[in-house]
Design brief:
Length: 1053
C-alpha cells in the first residue's frame, strides 16, 4: 500500500503528525460547547396577532383567514396550522425540510404585509413573526419568593432579567408571574356626562399634556441654547391637575371626573413554588452557545446579587438543563473510559501488552481526530454525539487489530519490523478499506433521515462516519509505523495450535461434513427466534420508556372561568400532592395559573381558565423507586376533582412528536366537527390503557353582544365602530401614554372602575359623542343580548379541525393505538359514528411520526445500505456469490437482536433497536469479509476449498473474535448502566443515559455476538456448499485454485 509504505519510510513526519493530532484534538474537546440534546433546526415560523376584545369567530374571519389565504401559495409549504381564540390569532407555518429557514421567514413576512393591506382590522396589533427553534426553550428557571412586598419582588425579578440578558450566550430572559405597575385613570361616566365631556375628549387631552417637545436651538452671541418644553409627568399625582375643558370660565380638572391610581395591571397569572407565591425568571440560550458557562455565570450573578437582596427574599433554581448536561456528559465520558479499559484488557489477554498498546493507540488518536472534525462541523458535544463515540469505540480498533495482527504474523514468518509493517499492512489493506466502507455505507443513509427525528438523530451517523474514517487513517498510517518502531523482534518459535483453535477446527470440520444440516439449523434458528419473539416479545414502541425527572399536570376549566376559581382548583391539586412532597420524593412543585398553561410546540393554551403544576422529582441516582410508580399514584388521586379537565404527563424521550394517540377530525362545519368529536371521545374512552383523553375544542366564552339599532344610531349621529371603540375603552381600557421612572416605562391607561363595569346597567350609563359633539347615552343606541360561539377555532391547511389526544398507561403505546383504530373502525361500520361526506378522521402525532420513521429505517435506509454494501463487496470480490454469502450474516444477526430483547425483556424500539439493526448491517459483514477474503487467497495459492476454509478460519479466528469482543465490551457499560465514575472514583451501577441507549446497545451486542459465532461456522459452510455446487454444474464465480479439481476428504485435515 503506497500510503502505508510512505508513512513507514517517513516515521519522523508521522511522529510530528501524531503530536499535532493530540494538540488539536485536546483543544477541540475543551472548546466544544456542551448541551444535553442536539440543536434542531426546522423551517417553522409562527405568526401571532393580538386583537383585544375580538371573539374567536372575528379573529378567524378578520385576521387568520386573511393571512392564511396569502400564505397558501408559498413554495415548499408543508402545513399551515392556525388557532383563533379570544383576542389572539396564532398561525404556525411549516415548510419542507429542504427549505432555508431565513428565506422562508422573509417570504412569510412579505405575505403577511400583503394580508395587512386586505381590510385588516385597524385596531389589531402588528403581527409578530418568530422562528421556532428547539434550542430556544428555557434552559434555566429561577423562582423568587419570600415575605417581601409583591411589588418589590417584581422589581427584583425585572432587575435580574436585565442582568441575565447581559451574560454572553444568553438570548433572552423573561419574567413570569407578578403584576406590572400601571398608572390607571378611572373615570366616573356620570360626572363626565354632567360636565358635557366624553371619554374621547379625555383620550385626546391626556397624551397632549403628557409629552416632552424639542423646539430647536437659539443662538445668542457666542452661545447656542437648545430649547425644550418638558411636560412629561414625573409623579402620577400631577396627572390629576390636567385641565380637560373650560366651563363658564372655570377649568374642569381630571380629578373632577375621575381619579388617578398608581396600581397594577389586572391579575393575568399566578405562580407558586411549593405552596408559596413566587415569580419565575426564565433564561434562554443562543443557538450554539455552551450551556455550562452560561449556567455558571447566572449562578455567580445570583450569588453576587444575593448580598444586596432585601431580607426575606429567597430563590430556588427549579430547572437547570446544564445540570442534566453535566451529568449526561459525565455519564457518557465514564462509559467511554470504562469501555476503553475493558477493550484494553481484552487486547492484553488476547495479544499481549506490546501488541495491545499499539492497537489501543487507535482509540485516543481516532477520537482526537474526530473531536477536531466535529468542532469544524459546528457540532456541540451532546448525548447523541457522545453515544456515537461509544458505539464506535469497539469498532475503532477493528482495523488496527486486523492490520497489527497481520504485521505480527509476518514478523513470525521471519520478516524484519519495517518489511513486516509494509507487507503485512498491504496484504490486508483492501479488505480493511472494504470493511470500513461497508460500515460507513450502513450509517450513510441515516444522514438523509427526514423530519424532526432526522434532525435530532443525524449527529449519530455523521459522528460514527467521522470516527470510523479517522480509525482507518490511524490503522493505515500510524499503526504500521508504531509496529515498525516497537513491534516484535525476529521470528518467534512456532508452537502447536492453541486448544481453542483446535476446538474451533473440530467444530468447523463437523459443520462442513454436514453442510445441509448446518445450514438448515441456521435457517431454523432464525425462523424460530422470529416466531418466539412474536409470541413472547414485549411488543413495539417508538422510543424506550424513560423514568422522567419532570412531569406536568395541566388543568383546563370551561371558558369563562375566572382566574381565582382556576387557582382554587390548582391549590386543591397542590394539597393532594403534599404526601409526595413531605416524603421528599417530589423536590419542587411549581404551580402556574393563567398565562403559561399547557404548552405545545405549535402553540400554548392560555387564559384565566387554564394552568399547570410542574413536578420535579429527585435526581435519578437519589430515587428510591421509579418515578413512573409515583405518577400512577398521583394520577389516581386527581381523578375525582370536579370542574376541570386534568391531565398528568411525564416528560418524554426524544424530540417532540405529539401524543401517543392523536386523532384529527376535519370538515367544513365546525358544529358538525364538535358533534363528531364528542362521539369519538365516548367511543375510545373505554379502550384499556388509554388515559388523558382530551379534545382541543373549547366551548365558547359566555358572551354578551351589543346589538346596535342602526336607524337610531344614524339619527343620533353615531356609527357602530365608534360605539365599539368606546365600549372597549370602558371595559378593557385604553393606553394613552407611558409613565417613565427609574429607567422603567409603565402604561398610562384610561378605564372605568371595576365597580362601574360589573353590570350591564353600568355600561348603559356610558355616553358616546356624536358628530355634533353632543354626548348620546349608550342605552338609546341598542341592547345587550346573550350569544354563543366557539372558544377556539383550529384549522390545518385552511380546513377546520378538532384534535383528540390521549396517552397510554400500563400498556404499550402501539397496542393502545391499534385498539383505538379498531374501535373507531367498528363504530363507523356499525353506525355509532355517522361520518358525513367530506369529513375525515385521521391519526397523527406520534403514530404518524412512528410510521414515517419505520418506512424510512426499514423501507429505505436498510435496503439502500444493504445495496451499497453489496456493491462494495462486488467491487472487492468481483463476484456476486461471495457478497450474497457475506450479506447472510446481516440476516443471521437478527437471531441475536431478537434473542437479546427477549432475554432483557425489552420492546423493539423503532428508533433505537432500528438503529442497532442498521448498525449491525455494516458491522457484522466485516468479519465475513476478512474470512472469505483470506479463504479465496489461500485457494489462489493452491489450497482446496475445504482446506482453505479450515486454514482461513484458524488464521482469522483471533482477529475475528477480537473485533467482535472489543465492539461488544465497548457497549457493555451503556447496556448495563454500570461503569466506573472517574470523577468520584467509585463504581456506579445506575446510569440515567442507559435508559435511552440500552435497547440499541443490547441489539448490537447480542446481534454481533450471535452473528460472529454463526459467521465462523455458517459462512464457511455456505461458501463451500456454493463452491461445490458451482463446480458440479460448471458455474463460475468462485475462486478455483490449483487443487480445485482434486476432491479432498475432511479426514485429510
Amino acid at each position: 500500500m503506497i500510503l502505508t509504505d510512505l508513512a513507514v519510510n517517513n516515521r519522523t513526519t508521522v511522529g510530528v503528525l501524531v503530536m499535532l493530532i493530540v494538540v488539536a484534538g485536546v483543544m477541540s474537546y475543551v472548546q466544544l460547547p456542551r448541551e444535553a440534546f442536539p440543536e434542531i433546526e426546522q423551517p417553522i415560523t409562527q405568526i401571532t396577532t393580538t386583537y383585544e376584545g375580538a371573539s374567536p369567530e372575528e379573529i378567524e374571519e378578520l385576521v387568520t383567514i386573511k393571512i392564511e389565504n396569502k400564505l397558501s401559495g408559498l413554495k415548499g409549504l408543508k402545513k399551515i396550522h392556525s388557532i383563533s381564540r379570544e383576542g389572539v390569532s396564532q398561525i404556525t407555518v411549516e415548510f419542507l425540510p429542504s427549505v432555508d429557514i431565513d428565506n422562508a421567514l422573509q417570504r412569510v413576512r412579505d405575505k403577511v404585509e400583503l394580508a395587512k393591506g386586505d381590510d385588516f382590522p385597524v385596531d389589531a396589533d402588528e403581527p409578530v413573526l418568530t422562528e421556532l427553534s428547539f434550542s430556544e426553550f428555557p434552559v434555566l428557571m429561577i423562582n423568587l419568593f419570600g415575605t417581601i412586598e409583591p411589588a418589590r419582588l417584581k422589581d427584583i425579578a425585572d432587575e435580574l432579567e436585565d442582568t441575565f440578558e447581559a451574560i454572553p450566550g444568553v438570548l433572552n430572559s423573561d419574567v413570569l408571574g407578578g403584576r406590572e405597575r400601571e398608572i390607571r385613570i378611572e373615570i366616573d361616566p356620570d360626572r363626565v356626562a354632567s360636565y358635557g365631556l366624553t371619554v374621547g375628549e379625555l383620550i385626546q387631552v391626556i397624551p397632549a399634556e403628557h409629552v416632552n417637545t424639542s423646539v430647536g436651538g437659539l443662538e445668542t452671541g457666542r452661545t447656542k441654547f437648545n430649547i425644550r418644553v418638558p411636560a412629561e409627568f414625573d409623579d402620577p399625582a400631577q396627572i390629576d391637575t390636567i385641565v380637560l375643558a373650560m366651563r363658564d370660565g372655570k377649568p374642569i380638572y381630571l380629578t373632577d371626573v375621575g381619579r388617578v391610581r398608581d396600581t397594577f395591571e389586572d391579575v393575568e397569572s399566578i405562580s407558586r413554588l411549593n405552596g408559596q407565591r413566587s415569580i419565575t425568571v426564565t433564561i434562554q440560550k443562543r443557538a450554539g452557545a455552551d450551556i455550562i458557562p452560561i449556567s455558571r455565570a447566572v449562578k455567580a450573578a445570583l450569588s453576587e446579587l444575593q448580598q444586596v437582596f432585601p431580607k426575606g427574599l429567597q430563590y430556588e433554581i427549579t430547572m437547570d438543563i446544564s445540570k442534566i448536561t453535566r451529568l449526561m456528559v459525565k455519564d457518557l465520558e465514564n462509559n467511554i473510559l470504562t469501555g476503553l479499559i475493558l477493550v484494553m484488557l481484552v487486547m492484553v489477554l488476547f495479544t499481549g501488552l506490546r501488541t495491545s498498546l499499539i492497537v489501543a493507540l487507535a482509540i485516543p488518536l481516532s477520537m482526537l481526530i474526530s473531536f477536531t472534525i466535529i468542532q469544524l462541523l459546528g457540532y456541540t458535544l451532546n448525548m447523541i454525539v457522545l453515544f456515537s463515540l461509544i458505539l464506535a469505540l469497539g469498532m475503532l480498533v477493528d482495523n488496527a487489530i486486523v492490520i497489527v495482527e497481520n504485521i505480527y504474523r509476518h514478523m513470525q514468518m521471519g520478516r524484519g519490523r519495517i518489511e513486516a509493517a509494509m507487507s503485512g499492512a498491504s496484504e490486508v489493506a483492501w479488505p480493511v478499506i472494504a470493511s470500513t466502507a461497508t460500515t460507513i455505507a450502513a450509517f450513510g443513509p441515516l444522514v438523509f433521515w427526514p423530519g424532526i427525528m432526522g434532525d435530532f438523530m443525524k449527529y449519530l451517523p455523521v459522528t460514527v462516519i467521522v470516527t470510523l474514517t479517522s480509525s482507518l487513517f490511524v490503522a493505515m498510517i500510524i499503526s504500521p509505523v508504531a509496529c515498525s518502531i516497537i513491534g516484535g523482534h525476529g521470528p518467534r518459535k512456532r508452537e502447536g495450535k492453541h486448544w481453542f483453535i483446535r476446538g474451533y477446527q473440530v467444530l468447523l470440520r463437523g459443520a462442513l461434513a454436514h453442510r445441509f444440516m448446518t445450514l438448515t439449523a441456521g435457517a431454523g434458528l432464525l425462523i424460530g427466534m422470529v416466531a418466539l419473539y412474536g409470541r413472547f416479545g414485549s411488543g413495539l414502541v417508538e422510543f424506550p420508556a424513560m423514568d422522567p425527572e419532570h412531569a406536568i399536570i395541566s388543568v383546563r376549566c370551561p371558558q369563562g372561568t375566572s382566574i381565582h376559581h382556576t387557582d382554587r382548583i390548582i391549590q386543591l391539586i397542590e394539597k393532594r400532592l403534599e404526601p409526595w412532597r413531605r416524603s421528599g420524593e417530589l423536590k419542587y412543585v411549581v404551580a402556574t395559573v393563567g398565562a403559561g398553561g399547557e404548552q405545545t410546540f405549535e402553540g400554548a393554551s392560555f387564559g384565566p381558565h387554564v394552568g399547570n403544576v410542574t413536578l420535579t422529582f429527585q435526581a435519578f441516582n437519589d430515587r428510591l423507586r421509579p418515578t413512573q410508580q409515583a405518577l400512577d399514584e398521583i394520577r389516581e388521586v386527581l381523578t375525582d376533582i370536579p370542574g376541570a379537565e386534568i391531565k398528568l404527563e411525564g416528560e418524554k424521550a426524544g424530540p417532540p412528536t405529539g401524543e401517543v394517540v392523536t386523532i384529527r377530525i376535519s370538515g367544513k362545519d365546525f358544529n358538525e366537527l364538535e358533534r363528531l368529536s364528542k362521539q369519538l371521545v365516548q367511543v375510545i374512552k373505554p379502550v384499556p390503557g388509554l388515559v388523558n383523553v382530551r379534545s382541543d375544542y373549547e366551548a365558547a366564552l359566555p358572551e354578551l353582544a351589543f346589538r346596535v339599532d342602526r336607524r337610531r344610531a344614524s339619527m343620533a349621529g353615531v356609527n357602530t365602530a365608534l360605539i365599539g371603540r368606546y365600549l372597549k375603552t370602558a371595559i378593557y381600557g385604553r393606553k394613552v401614554g407611558n409613565f417613565r421612572q427609574f429607567n422603567e416605562e409603565y402604561d398610562i391607561t384610561i378605564r372605568l372602575p371595576a365597580s362601574e363595569r360589573s353590570r350591564i346597567e353600568d355600561l348603559f350609563r356610558l355616553h358616546i359623542p356624536n358628530t355634533a359633539g353632543r354626548a348620546v347615552p349608550l342605552s338609546t343606541l341598542g341592547r345587550f343580548e346573550y350569544t354563543g360561539g366557539y372558544g377556539t377555532i383550529s384549522r390545518i391547511n385552511r380546513k377546520p379541525v378538532i384534535t383528540l389526544t390521549g396517552r397510554e398507561q400500563g400498556r404499550l403505546a402501539n397496542d393502545v393505538v391499534r385498539d383505538v383504530k379498531a374501535v373507531i373502525k367498528d363504530a363507523i361500520a356499525g353506525g355509532a359514528i355517522a361520518l358525513p361526506p367530506g369529513y375525515n378522521i385521521e391519526f397523527a402525532g406520534q403514530d404518524e411520526e412512528q410510521q414515517a420513521n419505520m418506512i424510512f429505517l426499514f423501507g429505505q435506509a436498510l435496503p439502500f445500505a444493504c445495496l451499497v454494501i453489496c456493491l462494495i463487496l462486488v467491487m472487492q470480490f468481483n463476484t456476486l456469490s461471495a457478497p450474497l454469502i457475506i450479506m447472510s450474516t446481516v440476516v443471521l444477526s437478527m437471531v441475536g437482536v431478537l434473542g437479546g430483547l427477549l432475554i432483557c425483556n425489552l420492546p423493539f424500539s423503532v428508533i433505537m433497536t432500528g438503529l442497532g439493526v442498521i448498525s449491525l448491517a455494516g458491522v457484522v459483514v466485516n468479519n465475513a469479509i476478512v474470512l472469505l477474503d483470506y479463504t479465496r487467497k489461500l485457494q489462489r495459492r493452491g489450497r482446496d476449498v475445504i482446506a482453505a476454509a479450515l486454514e482461513a478460519g484458524a488464521t482469522r479466528l483471533r482477529p475475528v473474535l477480537l473485533t467482535a469482543i472489543t465492539t461488544i465490551v465497548g457497549l457493555v457499560p451503556m447496556a448495563t448502566g454500570m461503569s466506573f465514575d472517574f470523577h468520584t472514583m467509585v463504581w456506579t451501577t445506575r446510569s440515567e443515559s442507559s435508559q435511552w441507549w440500552a435497547s440499541l446497545a443490547i441489539a448490537v451486542i447480542f446481534g454481533l455476538a450471535f452473528a460472529t459465532l454463526l459467521t465462523l461456522v455458517v459462512v464457511p459452510t455456505l461458501y463451500v456448499s456454493l463452491y461445490r455446487m458451482a463446480a458440479r454444474f460448471g458455474l463460475g464465480g468462485l475462486e478455483r485454485g490449483e487443487a480445485a479439481g482434486r476432491h479432498v476428504e475432511l479426514a485429510d485435515y
